[in-house]
Specification:
Elements lengths: L2 H12 L5 H8 L15 H13 L4 E4 L4 H14 L6 E4 L12 H9 L4 E5 L6 H9 L3 E5 L13 E2 L15 H13 L6 H6 L1 H10 L6 H15 L5 H9 L9 H18 L3 H8 L3 H36 L6 E5 L7 H12 L3 E7 L2 E7 L6 H6 L5 E7 L2 E6 L4 H18 L12 E2 L7 H7 L13 E7 L2 E6 L2 E9 L2 E5 L3 H9 L4 E12 L2 E13 L2
Parallel strand pairs: 1-2, 1-3, 3-4, 4-5, 6-7, 11-12, 15-17
Antiparallel strand pairs: 7-8, 8-10, 9-10, 12-16, 13-14, 14-15, 16-17
Helix pairs in contact: 4-7, 4-9, 4-13, 7-9, 9-10, 9-12, 11-14, 12-14, 13-14, 14-15
Length: about 550
C-alpha cells in the first residue's frame, strides 16, 4: 500500500468507514445502498390510495413547497404519475401570500379548479387541521414529507422517515428523496418506464444537495446517480439549458456546482415571485419556452442578490443592537422582502456565531425565518413555544413561522432566557470546534493525492471534503488579493495556499505568533495547461 492509499484509508476510518465492503460501496461509481420503499410507514396504503384515485379518474394535484427541494419533488412526482394518467397537475403556494405548508385557502383554490386528490411533497406533516379541512370538502389527501414531526401517534396517511415509530433505516432523506421512494413503490405495482425513474434522479440529486441533507448512505447513492445522468449531458432540456446559462459544464458537474450554481437560481424564483417557474422550466419541451423560463429565473436571481444586500445592510445594524437583549438575535426588519430573510439570517448567523431569526411584518402578522449555529437546535428551542405561533416548522438548523405582533416580545425574552441557561452549562456553546481529518506535512500535498481525493465526491453535509492540518509553520510571501483584505495568497514552503475569507484577521494571527497551524482542503489549480496542488485555507490558529 502506497502513502496516498494509507492517507485515504486513515481518513475513511476516522469517518467510520473501515471494512473493505464499506470502502467499496463508498467509492463505487454505481453504489448499491438503497432500501425497500415499503419499509416506510404507510407506504402500502398510500400507494393503493393513489392508484385507486388514478383508476377512478380523479383529478390529482401535487402540492409542493416553494424551495428547490419542493420544486424538484413536484417535478419528480409529475413526471412519474404522468406515465399513468393525464389527470394530474400541481400547486405550489406563494411564499409571500400563503407561506410554507398546507393552508385552507390553498385547498379552497384547488377545489375551485376541480382538484379531488392531493399528494403533498416536502410539506404537510404538521398540517393535521388542514388535512381534516380538505377531507371535509371531499378532497382525499396523502402526505409525503421529511420535516420533524410531533411525537403524537400518526393518524393520517403520512409518509415521513421522521414519523414517530417509523423504522426506515435512513432518516436523512430530503423531501424529494421521500417523493422518489413513493415513485419507486408505485413502480412495483404499475409499469413505469425505467428510463423515467432513472432520469428523474437528476432532480433527486438537486433537491437533496439544495436542502443540505447529509450526503451519506442512501443520499450518496441518489446524488451519485443524479450527477452521473447530468454529466452525460443532462437528460432534461430545461435543466440542461439552465446549467449552460449558469456558466457550468454539463460534463463535469459536482455537488458544489449544485449548491452554488443551480440551487440558488431555482430558489430565487420562489423567493422573489412564484416557485412554479422552476416546475414550468423542468416540464417544458419547446426551446422557446425553455429559453424564456431560464432567462426569467436568472433575472430573478439577480434581483434576489440586490434585495439580499440591501436587507443585510439594514439587519446587521439591528442585529448588533440585539446583543444588549441576549444571545438569541431576533431582528425586526422593515420593508424587507420575505423571500430573502433566510439568506440574510444565515449570513448574520455566520458572522455573529449566534442563532438568528429575522421577522418582517406581513399584514397583521409577522413572518420569521431563522438559522442556527452548530450546537443549538433552533427547532427544539422554538418548539417549546409552539403555542405562540400561527404556523411553525423547520429542523435543527433552520425554522420558519408566522406570529402575532403581541407575542414577539415574550418570545424574544423566553429564547434569550433559554439560551443563557444553555450557555451557563456550556460556556463554549457558540465556539465552532475546528475539525479536520489528518495532519500532513507540506511535501505530502501532491497532485496525485489531490486527484485521488476527488473520489470522496459528492461532498457536502456530513461528508465534507477531506480537511488537513499543517502544524508549526511560518507562512511566507503573503499578499492580499483584489485590494480586499478578505482574500489572500501565501506559501508554506513550496505549497501554494489561498484564503477566501477573513484574511486580515488571519494575517494578524500570523503576525502575532511565532508559528501557526493551518487548516484547509486540497485542490488542483490549473492555469495555462499547468496544474499545481494548492491548499484552500479554512482556518489559521496560533501554533500549540
Amino acid at each position: 500500500m502506497n502513502l496516498n492509499q494509507e492517507i485515504i484509508r486513515e481518513i475513511l476510518a476516522k469517518r467510520g468507514i473501515e471494512s473493505e465492503e464499506e470502502r467499496k460501496e463508498y467509492f463505487a461509481v454505481r453504489p448499491q445502498r438503497t432500501y425497500d420503499p415499503y419499509l416506510l410507514t404507510n407506504m402500502e396504503a398510500v400507494v393503493d390510495r393513489i392508484l385507486e384515485a388514478i383508476d377512478g379518474g380523479k383529478r390529482i394535484v401535487i402540492y409542493g413547497d416553494y424551495d428547490a427541494d419542493g420544486v424538484t419533488s413536484t417535478v419528480v412526482m409529475l413526471k412519474v404519475l404522468r406515465c399513468l394518467t393525464d389527470n394530474v397537475t400541481y400547486y405550489i403556494p406563494s411564499r409571500l401570500e400563503e407561506g410554507y405548508g398546507l393552508h385552507n385557502e390553498s385547498i379552497d383554490r384547488i377545489r375551485e379548479v376541480g382538484g379531488e386528490f392531493i399528494i403533498t411533497v416536502d410539506c404537510g406533516s404538521s398540517s393535521l387541521a388542514e388535512i381534516e379541512y380538505a377531507r371535509s370538502l371531499g378532497i382525499d389527501i396523502v402526505v409525503t414529507d421529511h420535516h420533524n414531526m410531533k411525537d403524537d401517534p400518526v393518524k393520517e396517511l403520512i409518509i415521513n422517515p421522521k414519523a414517530p415509530g417509523d423504522t426506515y433505516p435512513f432518516k436523512g432523506l430530503a423531501g424529494v428523496g421521500v417523493a422518489y421512494k413513493l415513485c419507486l413503490a408505485i413502480s412495483r405495482k404499475r409499469e413505469i418506464p425505467r428510463l423515467v425513474l432513472s432520469e428523474v434522479l437528476e432532480f433527486v440529486a438537486i433537491g437533496t444537495v439544495a436542502d443540505i441533507m447529509p450526503l451519506l448512505d442512501e443520499n450518496r447513492s441518489f446524488v451519485k446517480y443524479g450527477l452521473m445522468w447530468m454529466n452525460r449531458g443532462c437528460q432534461n432540456p430545461g435543466l440542461r439549458r439552465l446549467i449552460e446559462l449558469s456558466g457550468l459544464d454539463c460534463r463535469n458537474l459536482t455537488s458544489t456546482n449544485i449548491s452554488f450554481g443551480i440551487a440558488p437560481r431555482i430558489n430565487a424564483a420562489g423567493r422573489v415571485s412564484d416557485a412554479d417557474l422552476g416546475v414550468k422550466l423542468f416540464m417544458a419541451e419547446s426551446p422557446e419556452k425553455i429559453e424564456k423560463y431560464c432567462n426569467d429565473m436568472i433575472e430573478r436571481n439577480n434581483l434576489r442578490k440586490k434585495w439580499q444586500e440591501e436587507a443585510y445592510q439594514q439587519c446587521i445594524v439591528k442585529a448588533r443592537n440585539e446583543y444588549r437583549k441576549g444571545d438569541f438575535l431576533l431582528v425586526e426588519a422593515e420593508n424587507v422582502h420575505e423571500g430573502i430573510l433566510g439568506i440574510v439570517a444565515g449570513k448574520i448567523k455566520e458572522e455573529s456565531k449566534r442563532p438568528t431569526v429575522i421577522v418582517t411584518k406581513n399584514g397583521d402578522e409577522y413572518k420569521g425565518t431563522g438559522r442556527s449555529v452548530e450546537k443549538v437546535d433552533i427547532y427544539e428551542m422554538l418548539n417549546r413555544y409552539r403555542d405562540c405561533f400561527i404556523h411553525f416548522g423547520g429542523h435543527r438548523a433552520a425554522c420558519g413561522f408566522t406570529i402575532a405582533p403581541e407575542k414577539l416580545s415574550e418570545l424574544r425574552t423566553n429564547l434569550n432566557k433559554d439560551l443563557a441557561e444553555m450557555r451557563s452549562e456550556d460556556p463554549d456553546l457558540f465556539e465552532k470546534e475546528i475539525t479536520y481529518d489528518l495532519d500532513l506535512e507540506p511535501e505530502e500535498f501532491t497532485l496525485e493525492l489531490a486527484e485521488e481525493l476527488r473520489s470522496f465526491e459528492p461532498c457536502g453535509k456530513d461528508n465534507e471534503p477531506p480537511k488537513f492540518r499543517i502544524t508549526f509553520v511560518v507562512p511566507e510571501n503573503w499578499r492580499f488579493l483584489k485590494d480586499d483584505q478578505r482574500y489572500a495568497k501565501f506559501q508554506i514552503g513550496d505549497l501554494d495556499c489561498i484564503l477566501f475569507h477573513d484574511a486580515k484577521k488571519y494575517y494578524d494571527v500570523i503576525q502575532n505568533s511565532e508559528f501557526v497551524d493551518v487548516y484547509g482542503t486540497m485542490e488542483i489549480n490549473t492555469w495555462r495547461d499547468q496544474s499545481r496542488v494548492q491548499l484552500q485555507v479554512s482556518e489559521i490558529t496560533p501554533g500549540m
